[in-house]
């Protein structure tokens, strides 16, 4: 009330809706910018990842497909041939494959650290140490190949499958030593982001393998022994291709020739490789055990054939996540 008895008009401030709307609009724009920034970063990182993972997936699928193709051509020869090829490649050679791959995985850590620290010379030294350690491991594992037949019989496999599998395993001895050189070479090149050359060489070997397998089975009719020899030949194409690329100028910073330094520190390298090999084998062996157990069923040939085909499809599919593991490494 004023002194004249009149009621004063109180001025109530009006809300500035335009200002609040502008703040909301600004916050929305900031949110959109953040979303666009996140999307852009995801796109950039995805391209970097696929630059590594894409060739890695292809090379692994191509290498594994050689085993599938070999078994497929063996299946064209008969149930016994397919069962023997399945036992020899999935069980005996698969055991060897898992151990060699795991031991070579130690090279991923060492080469990755050396490359990141710009100690490029050490990558070549680590590669040669891995060759030496894995080659010695191959020599130690030779009894597994030489006495495969009695071992399979001892595990309850049918006599005819054990006999033919033991013969096939002997023809896989060159492939056994091939793993010791192939897997370290792949990790050596992978740590330098040279996955493309691995993919190119693997593709060429796959095409040659298909052609030679067809000639061996249908034209020359060399039987299941011939299909085993084609697998050796195709894998050595990969090894020789990667080795030629490494030695003849493909890796000038990381390969400076053979050195006696590779023979130093072998014990420490062996311990690291062995722990990696056992770890991977524990993940890999239960597939092989299933096939061995199937050999104890009635009508073992058909049972082993069916399960090995299913396991091969599963293994073929696993090459994709394995390549992503390599990309994250």
Automatic annotation (TrEMBL):
Main location: membrane
GO MF annotation: an example: xenobiotic transmembrane transporter activity
A cellular component annotation (GO) from this entry: membrane
Transmembrane segments: 49-67, 87-110, 131-152, 164-185, 197-218, 224-248
Protein location: Membrane
Membrane topology: Multi-pass membrane protein
Biased composition (Basic and acidic residues): 1-13
One BP term from GO: xenobiotic detoxification by transmembrane export across the plasma membrane
InterPro entries (alphabetical): MATE_euk, MATE_fam
Keywords in alphabetical order: Membrane, Transmembrane, Transmembrane helix
Residue ranges, annotated region (Disordered): 1-32
Presence of keyword Transmembrane helix: yes
Family from the record: Belongs to the multi antimicrobial extrusion (MATE) (TC 2.A.66.1) family.
Protein's name in the database: Transporter
Source species: Lithospermum erythrorhizon (Purple gromwell)
